[in-house]
Amino acid sequence: SDHMENICGYLMKYTNLVTGWQYRYFVLNNDAGLLEYFVNEQSRHLKPRGTLQLAGAVISPSDEDSHTFTVNAASGEQYKLRATDAKERQHWVSRLQICTQHHTEAIGKNNPPLKSRSFSLASQGSANSPGVQRRPSQNAVSFFNVGHHRLPTGKRVPIMQPDHLVDVREMMSQAEGQQRDLIRSIECLPASGHLTSLDQDLLMLKATSMATMNCLNDCFHILQLQHASQQKGSLPAGTTISWLEPKISLANHFKNGAAQNFPAEINKPASVREEQSIAEPCQLTREPEEINPDEELEDICDDKEDDLGAVEEQRSVILHLLSQLKLGMDLTRVVLPTFILEKRSLLEMYADFMSHPDLFIAITNGGSPEERMIRFVEYYLTSFHEGRKGAIAKKPYNPIIGETFHCSWRMPKSTVATNAGTDCSAHSPSEQVTLPKDPEGQAEPDYYTVKFVAEQVSHHPPVSGFYAECVERNICVNAHVWTKSKFLGMSIGVTMVGEGVLHLLEHGEEYTFSLPCAYARSILTVPWVELGGKVNINCAKTGYSASINFHTKPFYGGKLHRVTGEVKQNMTNTVVCRVQGEWNSVLEFTYSNGETKYVDLTKLSVTRKRVRPLEKQGPFESRRLWQHVTESLRDGDIDKATEHKRALEERQRNEERLRTETETPWCTKYFLKDGDGWVYHKPLWKTVSAAQTQQMDSN
């Protein structure tokens, strides 16, 4: 039935990844055209926790399941809600849609449309006719004539009254329609000739016009909030200004302004068919595999990412993609063009942060808690430089769920001992390295081994777990990272949500740490990477902590890649070490005794990791999994690389759909869920504890 009905009841509302879904009491007020919610039914007489204007809203049942639906307000705010079953969802959706339609039509009747502004594509005959000649000095924007309303000179702008917001909304709707006409006019231009749909000026016009409309929509949202504050006296608690969500699908790769067409199945290379036909990972062995470091060989791959050729050649593809993104848009589900990819997986990039294993092992050699904290800070700050492959900002492959990466490093014991004595001689000149004894009395190797394993434990959200250990020195590190990427206009921001813990078992110390944000800047010219944000390192047992600031470059002046930090004793609030410099160049450490040490990262020796040959790797190990994409990128065949990448992504989507339909949970291989984090299934601290217990029992 189409009658108006006030309804109320409990629904689940999605807040964020941390809080997740929460039960809230919702009330549909048909008279006011509002959807309000409260913490519970008992608090209904209090001020609502949130309110949405339904006029102009879009109510959309979700296709992810039969219980979820979204309410997208005209202001850009969105509620993601979940009913108890499909019947209840349908009841809420139908009542909301009736109320929305009623109040939207009421606005239209009470406010007749404004006079349209002039907007026309200059017509000088067909684009292919001889009459259309574009002079070299002629800007493509001059082909468009956009009329603007001007205020009479000397007249003051009247104060915005509440009912004028309706006029603003109407003007906004007209502007959005004109912007869509502009996009359509550009895309209808021929693919060749003097003025084409791929003209870079026109593509830039598409991108900037979309960004302008985003900005205007957000400004309109602010006006609505100000209007609400005038009515209620103050802004509602917890009010936030949200960016608008994308209205278009970006499920396809883009090439020369259009979605790519891939050959039929029969024409696909055997390697692509193989990628698509690999069995469901849970049907393969999900038992943890013990990797023998002796099977690993020193890595000879050296894929530096300094080639700008592909980026320069595909500038139009980037512009086309930018014209369809919105500020603040989550890029997790956006399929980016293949040519901007690095030739390695994100899991391997985490391994490359361990390229100075001598500094990692030397942490536990510190003679005091203060020295060990300082050494950890030194290792932490030297890890990011080698983690980046070259100066050009490219994106590593998004790991598919179940993907793993294994490697190891070997460090001569003499090198670690020498470095430990040389680097920090001012702190502990007489330190001794205690080596474990071989229980079988066999000859010990003259090197330390650091083993590394990473696994993609979740797809939505994308979470990776990684673990590294040196058994001989009783040191290990466990971390989980969720990468959140957002479009910021002319840059892309990546937030590394998660936590790592370093365990020094010989000293019974644990060091918790976080990771900085990363930014890909100047994505239309020469893209480069910048780190930003504040990270903290803490050791609860010793009371030492470190605070490190990665500074982003100011708009005017300032240095690139600057980092500052300090190590202090929390009990006395005494700073024992200060650090400053650039995280990819030279770092300066100043100690409490007045001594200063400089670390030139460009001259630090890098230990090559050891990796098993492809033929010995499992089908879901990173290098074997992505080998055809990597080979195609090395050969410069972007189309072929895109096809292989698309095959892997299609297979992952099909597997995820099958698990959803069969209600089959995903089985991780090496990492176990522990609260909000992920922990390696066989960490060194458990192994050592079990060995100590066994030794005590035998005694």
Topology overview:
Blueprint: E1 8-14, E2 21-29, E3 34-38, E4 50-53, E5 58-61, E6 68-72, E7 78-82, H1 86-110, E8 119-121, E9 144-146, H2 164-187, H3 200-232, E10 254-255, E11 258-259, H4 270-277, E12 297-298, H5 309-313, H6 315-322, E13 341-345, H7 346-352, H8 357-362, H9 369-387, E14 395-397, E15 404-412, H10 413-423, E16 447-458, E17 463-470, E18 475-487, E19 492-504, E20 509-513, E21 517-521, E22 528-539, E23 544-551, E24 562-569, E25 574-582, E26 586-591, E27 596-600, E28 610-611, H11 622-625, H12 627-634, H13 638-662, E29 671-674, E30 677-680, H14 684-698
Helix pairs in contact: 2-3, 3-6, 4-13, 12-13
Subcellular location: Endomembrane system; Endosome; Golgi apparatus
Region (Disordered): 104-137, 420-440, 637-658
Main location: membrane
